[in-house]
Specification:
This protein is an alpha/beta fold and about 475 residues long. It is about 30% helix and about 25% strand. The strands form six sheets. The protein has a nine-stranded mixed β-sheet, sandwiched between helices. A four-stranded antiparallel β-sheet has the order 6-7-17-18. Helix 13 links the parallel strand 24 and strand 25.
Length: about 475
């Protein structure tokens, strides 16, 4: 249990004059005292707004990082919105919070500019760091993040600061983050992975934090330069980020940069395919620690150094996590940091059950949990349920494609099995050749109805495969089968 007393003790134990945050975007460093001086100045500004909620739409920055802490100090609920979302979706989220102050959205730029001026006009905090958060209510709604979702209206997932801290501590203890570690932050700072994984987690672990721009090909080009310059040894990355790093680092120079460092590379937010995993680990001489979690449940599992390197699960349950597996294979979890509920249209919370049904098909393999796919992505063929993940794994094992996605698309009441793939320059495959492999390895029911080449697999803003777009494109276009 987290309470005000142990939060106060934590803040008082911080080495106030040590560097906490490095802004790689602005090339500026902040000690704990300097950073919380900024937090205090922001807290005073937003207190004057007399609001209970703030919708913030900003890119990665020291300002946004400090604003989260300022909202915690003032007991203000923060609703982060990705600037790359469509205008329609941003308006829809704002409409769900009509009384909230908006920062960084349309005509609210003056308010954002006002906050930016604070960056250069603040003095270091000279008092007790714990005093800044003496009035913080750890149990009230602190953060509302909107899930991207593959269908339907995005849901506002509500968490308290207490939940976030508990989950961060459990993950910290499993991986072994410690004071002196340096964490790289290039996740979008308006998503859960950019808040819990790469702000709160390193903060409660006593790590130094290096903030970079949202990851892109350009950031990948500068990646190893940042790692060398700032002594970074801890990373939280999505598979797409790993792929970009490999693509631009033709000489594998990162291996030399990491030599002699105690490196921790955590991977999450999307499935990590075995080929990418092996390529990255071999190129840079590191281990990738896969993990698993959801916006509602936060962290659930992680791989650790105690698991064998060849283990390709998403790791073992974190301390405090309980799991049941339904008869159809769906994973159902209970956690001490369960979300408070979904944000209702009238501002009411739709409370969750004690156990959360994930919609993911899981298997406990003894040495860790394996994710077998999504329940709603099951393909129904001839009245039989088929898991598209089995086909993807089979094709990966056969090294048929560098990247592929398989899913069922409704065709007059029955699913057609479609495989979208990025062509391999070394070999061209026909549907007949692929189906011969599938018949041999999985059985006749797993044969493809269509094999569709694409330049790239579409991803949503969370880095997950945009299956809805694939299905819509299939229905709209007349592919030659």
């Amino acid at each position: 249990m987290i309470n005000k007393d142990n939060v106060a003790s934590f803040f008082r134990a911080l080495p106030a004059d040590d560097t906490f945050l490095v802004d790689a975007i602005e090339n500026r460093k902040y000690s704990y005292r300097e950073f919380f001086g900024l937090v205090n100045a922001l807290a005073q500004k937003i207190r004057d707004w007399k609001t209970e909620q703030i919708v913030v739409c900003l890119e990665n920055s020291t300002l946004l990082c400090a604003l989260y802490f300022a909202c915690a100090a003032q007991n203000i609920t923060v609703i982060p919105v990705d600037p790359k979302k469509s205008e329609q979706e941003i308006r829809r989220i704002c409409a769900s919070h009509p009384d909230a102050v908006q920062v960084g959205i349309e005509n609210d730029c003056p308010r954002s500019a006002l906050l930016v001026t604070v960056l250069d006009k603040t003095s270091p905090w000279e008092g007790d760091l714990a005093a800044l958060f003496a009035q913080t209510n750890l149990q009230k709604p602190f953060l509302i993040t909107y899930t991207s979702g593959s269908t339907g209206k995005p849901k506002g997932v509500v968490h308290s600061l207490h939940n976030l801290i508990l989950s961060a501590i459990a993950f910290r203890d499993a991986i072994g983050y410690k004071r002196g570690d340096v964490m790289y932050h290039a996740m979008p700072m308006t998503y859960m992975a950019g808040i819990l994984n790469t702000i709160l987690l390193p903060f409660v672990a006593g790590c130094q934090l290096v903030i970079a721009r949202r990851f892109s090909v350009m950031e990948a080009v500068s990646f190893w330069k940042y790692v060398r310059r700032y002594g970074i040894n801890c990373f939280w990355m999505a598979p797409a980020m790993l792929r970009m790093i490999l693509a631009v680092d033709k000489k594998g120079t990162g291996r030399t940069v990491l030599e002699g460092r105690e490196v921790r590379f955590s991977v999450g937010t999307a499935p990590l395919d075995g080929k990418l995993r092996e390529q990255f680990q071999t190129t840079y001489g590191v281990r990738l620690y896969q993990s698993y979690g959801l916006s509602e449940t936060l962290f659930l599992t992680t791989q650790t150094a105690t698991l064998a390197p060849e283990n390709h699960s998403v790791g073992q349950l974190l301390r405090g996590v309980e799991m049941k597996i339904a008869t159809d294979g769906e994973g159902i979890f209970s956690v001490p940091w369960m979300f408070l509920g979904y944000w209702g249209e009238n501002g009411n919370l739709l409370a969750p059950a004690h156990w959360y049904a994930t919609g993911d098909l899981v298997e406990d393999c003894g040495q860790g949990l394996q994710i077998k796919g999504r329940k709603k992505e099951l393909i129904i063929k001839g009245g039989i349920n088929l898991n598209p993940h089995d086909i993807e794994l089979c094709l990966a094992d056969q090294a048929a494609f560098d990247q592929c996605v398989v899913q069922g698309v409704d065709d007059h009441g029955e699913d057609s099995i479609i495989c979208w793939y990025v062509p391999n320059a070394d070999r061209q495959w026909t549907r007949g050749q692929i189906n011969e492999i599938l018949r041999r390895e999985l059985g006749i029911r797993y044969q493809l109805d269509a094999l569709v080449p694409v330049d790239e697999i579409p991803k949503n803003l969370n880095g997950k495969v945009d299956r809805l777009k694939l299905a819509q494109d299939w229905k709209e276009q007349n592919y030659d089968r």
